[in-house]
Automatic annotation (TrEMBL), chains A, B:
HTH tetR-type domain sequence ranges: 20-80
Protein known as: TetR/AcrR family transcriptional regulator
Alphabetical keyword list: DNA-binding, Transcription, Transcription regulation
Organismal lineage: Bacteria, Bacillati, Actinomycetota, Actinomycetes, Kitasatosporales
Feature: DNA-binding region: 43-62
Species the sequence originates in: Streptomyces omiyaensis
Length: 236, 236
DNA sequence: ACGCAAAAATGCAGAGCCTGCAAAAATGCA
DNA sequence: TGCATTTTTGCAGGCTCTGCATTTTTGCGT
C-alpha cells in the first residue's frame, strides 16, 4: 500500500488466480446484466448469483454496488506509469505521456467488446460516470509522481534504497517544478477522456488514432483557435 | 430542462424562498456535521434533525445522502458561461475562458468559510470528491456548447427564435471545429481543479491568483517543460 | 378575513445496500 | 495426511432510498 508500483504483479498461486477469476466474473456479470435490464434494476444479489458466489462475498471484493461498474481496466494507470519511465529520454514530458497513453489505448482496442458494453452502461448512468472519473483521479496523483520523477530526480520508485521518501535534493527539485507535473498528469487524463468521448459518438467515422493525435496537437500548440477553421469575418 | 440557460432565476415567492432556505440549511448542517464528526458518521437523520425537517423531506431535496455534500456552489457553471459570452471579442477562446473562471473564483473567495469547510470534507472523502468531479462534468458539456457558440456561430442561446436547434450553417461550423470546444472546456475545468488543489496545500504561501496565472501560462505555452527549472545535466 | 386548490412536509412500509462477527469450507505446505 | 491460513458464507442489524397516503403550509381569489 505504500511503495508505489507493485499493485499488479502476475502472482500465480491457485489462490490468486481464483480471486482474479471471481473478481472478473463479478465485473462481467454486472456489466452484462446492466446492459440487459438497466443498471438500476441490477441488484447485488443478482450479480452474485450470476457469478456463482454469495451476496456477502460480493462485498469482500467491492466496497459498494456501484464500484463493480467502474472497475474495468483498473490497472491501466499502472502500465502507463511504467511506460512513462521507460520512454526515450529525448522526449519531452508531454511527448512521453502522449506515447504512453497511446500505447495503453492500443491495448484497450483488443478487449473491445467488454469496453463497449461498459461504455454503454456508463453513458446511461451519469452517477457511475462520475465515479469513473474519480477513479481516474486516483491514478492522476500517482502519474504526477512518476512524471516529476522522470523530470527532476532519480528514481525513488523501483529502487531498493528509499522507496518511500525522496532525498532532500529530490524534494528541492520537485518543489522547483511547482504544479507542472500535477497539471500535466491531469490534463493528459482529461485529454484521453475527451478524445474517447468525441470518438465514441463518431464511431467508425474516424480512426481513434487520428482523434488522439488531434487532441494532443491542440495541447502542444497552446490550445489556440485552430487556424484551418477561422471564425467568419463578422457575426450575423 | 431543454432550453439552456435559465436554471437560477431569482424567483421570490414565499414558497421559493423557503425552499432555498431549507436546501441551504440542509447543506450547511451536513457540512458542519461532517467536519465535526467525520462524513461517515453523519446520517441523514442527523442532518435532517439539525436542519429542522423530517428525514423524508431530505430526500425531497436530494437524490442521495452524498449529494448534499457536493452541492456547494452548484450554480457557478452558469455564471461562467455568461461571462464567456460577455467577454470582449478580441480575446481568444482560451483567454475568454481563463478570465471567466478567474472572475468566478474571486466570487468564491468571499464565501471562504463554507468553502474551506467543504474542501476539508472532500479532502477526507475521496468518494465524494469523485462525485464532485462528476458534477463538474455536467457543467463541462454546457460550457463546451457555450464556447462553440462564441467561436463558430450566432447565439442559439438567449435568442427567441430557435433555442433548441441550431441552423444548418451553425451545425456545419460546429462540426468543423471538431473536438476543440469540448477539449477547451474540459482542460479549463481541469486547470481550475489542479490550481485549487495545488494552492490549498500551500495555503498562505502564495496568492491564489498567482497559482491560477501560472497554470494558464503552462496551457498557453503548450505544456512545455518550464525553462527556468531545467533538468540536471545527467541523471544520477 | 376566509376558504379552496396546489404544493410541500410527514409518517410508514418495504426493498435494497452494506458491515461486523463467527462458523464452515478451501487452500498451501510440511 | 494434518495443520495454519485464507476465503467464503450466513445472519443480525443499521442505514439509505422510494412510493403512497395523510396532514400541514402557502398562494390567491373573494
Amino acid at each position: 500500500m505504500h511503495s508505489m508500483l507493485e499493485g499488479t504483479p502476475a502472482e500465480s498461486g491457485l489462490r490468486e488466480r481464483k480471486k482474479r477469476a471471481t473478481r472478473a466474473a463479478l465485473v462481467e456479470a454486472a456489466v452484462r446484466l446492466a446492459v440487459e435490464r438497466g443498471v438500476e434494476n441490477v441488484t447485488v444479489d443478482a450479480i452474485s448469483a450470476a457469478a456463482g458466489v454469495s451476496t456477502r462475498t460480493f462485498f469482500n471484493y467491492f466496497d459498494s454496488r456501484d464500484e463493480v461498474f467502474v472497475m474495468v481496466g483498473a490497472d491501466a494507470g499502472h502500465r502507463v506509469r511504467r511506460a512513462v519511465l521507460a520512454a526515450p529520454p529525448e522526449l519531452s514530458p508531454l511527448e512521453a505521456l502522449r506515447d504512453a497513453l497511446a500505447a495503453e489505448l492500443e491495448e484497450v482496442e483488443q478487449q473491445q467488446e467488454l469496453w463497449c458494453l461498459h461504455a454503454e452502461v456508463l453513458r446511461k448512468a451519469p452517477q457511475l460516470l462520475a465515479r469513473r472519473i474519480g477513479a481516474h483521479m486516483a491514478d492522476e496523483l500517482g502519474l504526477a509522481e512518476t512524471l516529476a520523477e522522470r523530470m527532476g530526480a532519480g528514481s525513488p520508485l523501483f529502487t531498493e534504497e528509499r522507496p518511500d521518501f525522496a532525498s532532500p535534493e529530490e524534494e528541492e527539485r520537485r518543489r522547483a517544478l511547482g504544479l507542472y507535473p500535477r497539471l500535466l498528469a491531469a490534463v493528459g487524463g482529461t485529454a484521453v477522456r475527451v478524445a474517447v468521448e468525441h470518438w465514441s459518438v463518431r464511431q467508425g467515422e474516424t480512426a481513434f488514432a487520428d482523434v488522439f493525435r488531434e487532441t494532443f496537437e491542440h495541447l502542444t500548440t497552446g490550445l489556440t483557435l485552430p487556424q484551418q477553421y477561422p471564425v467568419p469575418a463578422d457575426g450575423a
